[in-house]
Specification:
Layout lengths: L3 E8 L2 E8 L4 H12 L7 E2 L15 H4 L5 E6 L3 H6 L27 H13 L13 E5 L23 H9 L2 E6 L4 H10 L10 E5 L5 E5 L3 E5 L3 H6 L8 E5 L12 E3 L6 H4 L5 H15 L22
Parallel strand pairs: 1-4, 5-6, 5-10, 6-7, 10-11
Antiparallel strand pairs: 1-2, 3-4, 8-9
Helix pairs in contact: 5-9
Length: 319
């Protein structure tokens, strides 16, 4: 009697359960995905489905893939109606509202003992896989992925269509002065897949020091917004003594993620609707110059108001 395999498809922010027999093929899987999502098989790109290190053919049987029950597959792919709409500029687009407009008086939480204790626990228990060793004398740049480097919700045929413009130029320039860390509020598997998809993992012009996932985050509580998961830079500083609030900056499209370190966070404009905006989005290009100025002329990053980064005028008489 043939067994059944349950597979979870992650697409467009949702998860879909699919059950197949061991003798079903990848082609059968794609047909089942189409029934649940509406995405045609020829539009589907199953990112982390591999057979002997390569993308399996449609006639490859599920049993050959040796998938564990509940294996999650990240899919990219577009609905036909969405593809028809991406070249049409929508009317009456609502203004994107910031997730939280956190003011300075609400930042007293950053030194509360209960949260400092959580950070200490992450420092002791969270294991960091070093991809490239820290370099002496470099600053630290911590980057989010979704809507910061990558539009993860828009339709596309390939990941490159959703990559923020000037990404590789930006990382190449930043790497001259900064060690670079990727920190996403997702799982490590998805981070690694996205970095491969964007061509970041093995780029010859720069290197990523390590990745951090949601397990490195902590939960905090604020009277106004309730419980939130945030990214405390203290987790990195506790493990790497050469980095501190004086030489670290974090880019994220969600301000609450750096509520524990408000003086070291820069809220980047979210990169959404990639097909409409990629021809005009120059955020990373402008931020490259800002990072250069900070590295060259600023002794203490926490002394700069990063909310007004576009108006920053460095004191060039330093040194």
């Amino acid at each position: 009697m043939e067994g059944f395999t349950k597979i979870i498809i992650k697409w467009s922010g949702k998860e879909y359960d699919i059950e197949l027999t061991e003798n079903d093929t990848v082609g059968n899987l794609k047909s089942a995905i189409q029934k649940q999502t509406g995405v045609r098989p020829d539009r589907q790109k199953l990112l982390n489905l591999k057979f002997k290190g390569k993308t399996p053919d449609d006639d490859c049987r599920i049993c050959q893939l040796k998938l564990k029950p509940g294996f999650k597959i990240m899919m990219m792919g577009s609905l036909e109606e969405d593809i028809a709409e991406v070249n049409t500029t929508p009317e009456n687009i609502p203004e994107v509202i910031n997730d939280l407009d956190i003011e300075e008086e609400e930042i007293a939480i950053e030194n509360q003992e209960v949260y400092l204790a959580k950070i200490e626990k992450r420092i002791k228990e969270y294991e960091i896989k070093i991809l490239n060793q820290p370099r002496e004398g470099k600053k630290l740049l911590v980057l989010d992925i979704d809507y910061t480097l990558f539009d993860h919700r828009s339709v596309a045929e390939t990941g490159l269509e959703l990559m923020r413009p000037y990404l590789h130029e930006f990382l190449t320039s930043a790497y001259e002065d900064y060690d670079i860390v990727i920190w996403s509020a997702t799982g490590m598997k998805w981070i690694e897949e996205k970095m491969k998809l964007l061509g970041v993992t093995n780029n010859p012009n720069y290197k990523i020091m390590f990745h951090l996932d949601s397990l490195a985050m902590i939960s905090i509580h604020t009277p106004k917004y309730g419980v939130m998961d945030v990214k405390p830079l203290g987790v990195i500083w506790g493990k790497f003594q050469q980095y501190s609030n004086k030489n670290t900056i974090m880019f994220d499209d969600i301000r609450r993620n750096f509520i524990m370190n408000p003086k070291n966070g820069l809220r980047i404009r979210p990169f959404r609707q990639a097909h409409l905006n990629r021809a005009t989005d120059k955020e990373l290009l402008y931020l490259s110059k800002y990072l250069k100025d900070l590295a060259k002329y600023c002794d203490d990053f926490s002394a700069v108001n990063h909310r007004h980064w576009e108006k920053y005028k460095p004191n060039k008489r330093r040194n």
